[in-house]
Amino acid sequence: QVQLVESGGGLVQPGGSLRLSCAASGNIVRIDQMGWYHQAPGKTREVVARIISGHATTYRDSDKGRFTISMDNAKNTVYLQMNNLQPEDTGNYSCQAIIRVTTGWTGNYWGQGTQVTVSS
């Protein structure tokens, strides 16, 4: 019923920037929350940032000041602007969303993920 499609990952040098996008599509009535998660190699997945009801934001402490989450409500798309990337930011970045669909169900959805590699 809902699909999340991420884009924007890739290879970047330390100090560089990337902008990730995640577009939600399907039988969407309301998006309650969208977020980005990071799974570094050999580690558990951690939340990076969330945007709630399209405007309230939260961040992982280590990313405050470097990453910015934003949302285009008209496009059902969330963005993660990542600046001053460092090797420890390498990993898979997944989009997550809590979405109410036309059947009345509110579910937790995940995208496939996009790889970010920070290396010189």
Description:
- The protein is built from no helices and 11 strands.
- The strands form 2 sheets. Strands 2, 4, 5, 6, 9, 10 and 11 form a 7-stranded mixed β-sheet that branches.
- The radius of gyration is 14 Å and the shape is elongated.
- It has 120 residues and is mainly β.
Task: Give unreliable regions as ranges.
Answer: none
Summarize the helix and strand pattern as letters.
EEEEEEEEEEE
Largest sheet: 7 strands, mixed
Number of strands: 11
pLDDT averaged over residues: 96
- What is the chains' assembly state? single chain
Distance from first to last alpha carbon: 41 Å
The whole-angstrom Rg is 14 Å
Summary of the model, kept short:
With 120 residues, the chain is mainly β.
SSE diagram, text form:
Layout: E1 2-7, E2 10-12, E3 18-26, E4 28-39, E5 46-52, E6 56-59, E7 67-72, E8 77-82, E9 91-101, E10 106-110, E11 114-118
Parallel strand pairs: 2-11
Antiparallel strand pairs: 1-3, 3-8, 4-5, 4-9, 5-6, 7-8, 9-10, 9-11
Descriptive key words:
120 residues; mainly beta; seven-stranded mixed beta sheet; four-stranded antiparallel beta sheet; 11 strands; 0% helix
